[in-house]
Design brief:
- This protein is mainly α.
- The chain has helices spanning 47-61, 88-100, 104-118, 141-158, 161-178, 206-212, 217-231, 260-271, 278-289, 310-322, 326-336, 362-372; strands at 15-16, 86-87, 127-129, 134-135, 188-189, 194-196, 198-200, 245-247, 252-253, 258-259, 294-297, 303-308.
- A hairpin with a 4-residue loop joins strand 5 and strand 6 (194-196).
- The longest helix has 18 residues, at 141-158.
- It is globular and about 55 Å long.
- It starts with 14 loop residues before the first strand and ends with a helix.
Length: 374
């Protein structure tokens, strides 16, 4: 693999109207079953590789505040998180992994740390600079939904009414800024008190949305409309992925190139609610078998960037698991593990990374961990 790619985003600057007071929110705890939050395939046994990767993340990436974006420290930039900055995305993935591996005490401790680092009351900041001790003013809606999902997972497996209420409360607070009137947007700016008008299709975590929007007929309609937004973003059978985003302001889908990790997040979320297309699975299987799951494509399917990402293969493995394709899950996982550093003299031993550059991104490593337990 030529180099690994981390899913990071340039935040858009277009906004919706400001949201209502979030200190007074109605919290509705869903009555429907949440047992599917704990669904696992139990395909394959990657205990040895998993232990090496777990040890690397736990000892080299994990801090009391969160998880480094990259093991290798780099100069901070305004546009994207780098080096030893912290992302709520990483914390959400780690929290999911804690539940999958039954590390419940560590889960509670890390969730407490996550709130201390990222909490803005109504949402979690997407980024924290531990050097300057500054939080970004904006969230990333998918990251909030991932943390909320982990809370529900924990509540389900431990039968905790406290965490069940916490999950429902966090969702209720998130809605007014990031999902106003059911219209999911990329972020809410706590300083400007405005919401983005862009809606990344990768951000629609349908399993989480479906559960928390099951409390009323109005909320159920929101979910139906959200699913419709993503499904209408389908690019066609010739290139069976989805547009990167939808603009609520313009009422149209983006024609920008696809970041493959984001595109696969969209497919993963659809696969979790049984809405993935067979033609999409066939395309993905072909790309994986040919080792050609490239980082960037145009919307007509032309390759823009031939580098590849371990994180994309981890996402593909999870999609195959949801499709009950054990053979392709194992094939994809085995290919993913080829990027694991096995040289014990390397400072990134055990990581999914680039040995000679000493680079190991949290997105790739954490998705690899989750995929190994998926």
């Amino acid at each position: 693999m030529k180099r690994l790619f981390v899913l990071l985003m340039l935040l858009p600057t277009i906004f919706l109207a400001g949201c209502s007071n979030k200190n007074d929110v109605k919290v509705s705890i869903p009555k429907m079953s949440a047992s599917d939050f704990l669904d696992k395939s139990d395909y394959g046994d990657y205990s040895n590789q998993n232990k090496m990767l777990d040890d690397f993340v736990s000892n080299k990436m994990l801090t009391k505040q969160g998880i480094y974006t990259n093991y290798h420290q780099t100069k901070t930039t305004k546009s994207v998180a780098t080096g030893h900055e912290l992302l709520s995305e990483s914390s959400g993935l780690w929290l999911e992994y804690m539940v999958y591996t039954h590390q419940y005490k560590k889960y509670r401790e890390f969730y407490k740390a996550t709130k201390k680092t990222f909490d803005q009351g109504e949402q979690f900041s997407y980024r924290y600079d531990s050097k300057d001790k500054k939080k970004s003013n904006v969230n990333a809606t998918l990251d909030d939904l991932r943390i909320i999902r982990s809370l529900q997972m924990y509540a389900e497996v431990t039968n905790s009414s406290k965490y069940r209420k916490e999950a429902a409360t966090r969702f209720a607070k998130l809605k007014s800024g990031s999902i106003p009137n059911g219209k999911l947007v990329d972020f809410y700016d706590t300083k400007a008190k405005k919401s983005s008008t862009d809606s990344s299709l990768a951000y629609y975590d349908f399993k989480t949305l479906k559960y928390f929007e099951s409390t009323s007929s109005k909320e159920k309609k929101y979910y139906k409309n959200q699913l419709n937004v993503v499904q209408k973003g389908y690019l066609g059978d010739a290139f069976p992925l989805y547009a990167s985003s939808y603009s609520w302001r313009q009422g149209s889908y983006s024609s920008k190139n696809l970041n493959t990790s984001e595109a696969l997040e969209t497919v993963l979320h659809l696969s979790e609610v049984g809405k993935v297309k067979k033609v999409t699975l066939n395309w993905l299987e072909q790309q994986v078998k040919n080792h050609e799951l490239y980082n960037t494509y145009s919307i007509n399917g032309s390759v823009v960037d031939k580098d590849q990402s371990t994180g994309s293969y981890a996402l593909a493995a999870m999609i195959f698991a949801n499709a009950k394709n054990e053979k392709m899950y194992n094939y994809t996982m085995n290919y993913m593990w080829k990027s694991q550093v096995t040289d014990k003299s390397s400072p990134i031993y055990g990581a999914l990374g680039i040995k000679h550059l000493k680079q190991a991104y949290s997105f790739n490593n954490l998705n690899g961990l989750v995929a190994s337990k998926y």
